[in-house]
Amino acid sequence: MRGFILNINKAKNEDIIVTVLSANSITKYWRFFGARHSIIQIGNLIDFEVQESKNNFMPNMRSLSHLSFPWLFSSNHLLMWQNFIKLFEPHLKDSNEVDEFYFKLLLNIAKKWDKQNPKRLAVEAYIQLLKHEGRLYDNGFCYVCEEVLDQELGLMRAFLPAHPNCIYAFSLNKQEIFKLFNTQSTIHLNDQTVEKLYQILLKGL
Fold it and tell me: pLDDT higher for 185 or 53?
């Protein structure tokens, strides 16, 4: 089985509990002496075998191998990746079975993480996720007061648009943001705007 490590919790002694997102599920596994294994880090893509527990406890993780990416040796790329992938565990925590969209999304951007600007990739992936879940709010009205948006808007968590004064947020160009929503691409945005979007993204999915 293959999956991305979304979270790691200490258990007894050097054992750990590993939360893994695979193609169709998000599952917690017990890993004996997991604290000794460097490949068990948040964000890593691993291949492993599953051994069912005899006492009906959580399944055990066996025979781990690490599926590496070139950017893992860049501390900056790795930190941004871990900050991004950490958002998925609280977002999907109430799900056991999940759509393969989430695994494919992470795998797709992981392959490009060192070839394109990671912050742009993260923002574009965020838009794709919101659209997939039917949460992309793009009807031109302020989410707070429900009045028509002007040429400048602010964004809340989940990129919910509102008047900047309604949420005490910095202003963004409405035309540029709605183009982002429609194209799921940041190519038309400058780096300063992408940085602002990235900071909003880090508040959660």
Answer: 185
